Every structure is written in structure tokens, then in C-alpha cells.
Amino acid sequence: MKVLVIPExxxxxxxxxGPIISAxxxxxxxxxxxxxxxxxxxxGGVEQALRWDRIKEIIERYRGMVxxxxxxxxxxxxxxxxxxxxxxxxxxxxxxxKTGRFFVAENAWQELEVWVLAGHxxxxxxxxxxxxxxxxxxxxxxxxxxxxxxxxxxxxxxxxTLALEAVxxxxxxVRLCPEDMGNLRTRIRSWLQxxxx
Length: 197
Hints:
Elements: E1 2-7, H1 10-27, E2 34-37, H2 46-49, H3 52-62, E3 68-74, H4 81-96, E4 102-108, H5 113-118, H6 128-133, H7 137-149, H8 159-166, H9 170-176, H10 178-196
Parallel strand pairs: 1-2, 1-3, 3-4
Helix pairs in contact: 1-8, 3-4, 9-10
């Protein structure tokens, strides 16, 4: 199985979505799935990632090589983001037709970096509910955590090291992030089940 993860900007996001989506596939019994982060074309932010014409361009380019497309963007406190993703999903599935391929989109609450934090023991003074709902979780929580761990100078500002550590606790990520990671796992599992039936 080949999986293409489409982040809103791969330059830092690749260090988060690559390991986490690989762990997700392994969790579903697809440990041999080849997970690749889309780097061409570069989507320079969430505005680009929410444009159907840009997503269509990616699907057209890779649909002959990919079984599962996963669009991962930040929610950024935007309650309407799910509706935008639903529209893109419908367009993508209509475009893919009856090829057996699947396109799913998810918005991390509130930023992808929260998935990484969910896999770690955090400072006791931090309340998880506050981390989860913070619109600027990257600046407020992730960056101080990376600095405290001494990895902020590493690739992706510590994302690479911290994400690789976080996936060791993947069930915890799913448990602490049910609205996004839990939802993503459920939807992909349903598709995989449908492929077997």
C-alpha cells in the first residue's frame, strides 16, 4: 500500500506527519505501507491546501502510484475548517471515481504539533485541555517544550526527534486526540475494511 500525506507546508510538517501517519498505518496492521510526504508541489500554507484546484493537481500527478491520499492541515481554531475539508473530500472522491483509491482529509486540533505533544509526558503545570484548545499551540506549548528538551535547533525545530519519540506512544495520541487522530483512524479503518469485503 502506498500512502501520500499532503501537509499544508511540508518544510516543517513532514517531520510530524511522516512518522505519525506511518505509526497510524502500523496500528491498523499495515506496517509495510509506504508513507510518503508530498513535497512536489509545495503548498505554501493552509490557504493553498484548502484550494480544490491545488489538491486536484496533486491527485492527478500521483493517482497512478498512490492508494491512499491523506490531507493534513491545522484547524487553527476555525470551526468551519471541517466543512471545507468535507467539500475537498467529496470533490476528490468524485474525481477518483471507482478506482479503489481513497482520499481523506483531517484538521489537527489546533495544530499538527499537538499530535506530537500528545505522545509525551508534559510538564505537570500544563493542562491537556488547554494545550488542545490553544489556537497558537505551536508557539505557546510546542516550541517551549522543544527548547526545554534541547532539540529546538534540530531539523524542523525539534519536530523530527520529538515526533519519533511520540509515536512510541501512538495509542496515547489517539486517546488524547479523538476528534482528529481518532477520527482519521476510524475513517481509514472503515475504508480498509471495505477493501477486504
